[in-house]
Amino acid sequence: MRKWHMLAACAALTIGGAICGTINATPLQALELPAPELLFVFPAKQENIVPPVSEITLKFLGPVDLISLAVITPDQQRIVLHDVFNGSEEQKSDSFTLSLPQPLTMPGTYLIDYSASVTDPSDSSASSTSSYSSFIITEGGAASGE
């Protein structure tokens, strides 16, 4: 009977140690990589812009991998400036300025649709963000020079 109690006690200590070891290790392993943080976008959010707009600029808190960047026009056309899933080269930086194929001149509200990620090279964990920012092209810009 004593052997049985000894084995049970050893098993309990082993299991308890394993659980405590897991509990102690979990907080360090569970630290999440923070998502990329956008500091600046041009045209600025909700900014009224006089046409033409010929480029889009994104600036992040630190280096990120730009996954995609597109502009959605007032008539719902999507102008893709960068998309790694459709053949664009990978770009890593904290600042991106991408030229539009044609300057934007149509009055109305535009959306900048972007996605970016960061990767921890030590364990390949990643965190990403996707969001929109809008700006407005005003009608008065072209008429003011007349």
Question: What's the layout of helices and strands?
Answer:
Layout: H1 2-29, E1 38-42, E2 47-49, E3 53-72, E4 78-83, E5 91-104, E6 108-119, E7 126-137, H2 140-143
Parallel strand pairs: 2-7
Antiparallel strand pairs: 1-3, 3-4, 3-5, 3-6, 6-7
What does this structure look like?
- With 146 residues, the protein is of the alpha+beta class.
- The chain has two domains: 1-31; 38-143, Immunoglobulin-like, CATH 2.60.40.1220.
- It is 22% helix and 49% strand.
- The chain is built from two helices and seven strands.
- Strands 1, 2, 3, 4, 5, 6 and 7 form a seven-stranded mixed β-sheet that branches.
- Strand 6 and strand 7 form a beta hairpin.
- The longest helix has 28 residues, at 2-29.
- Mean pLDDT is 82; it is low at 3-11, 13-30 and 142-146.
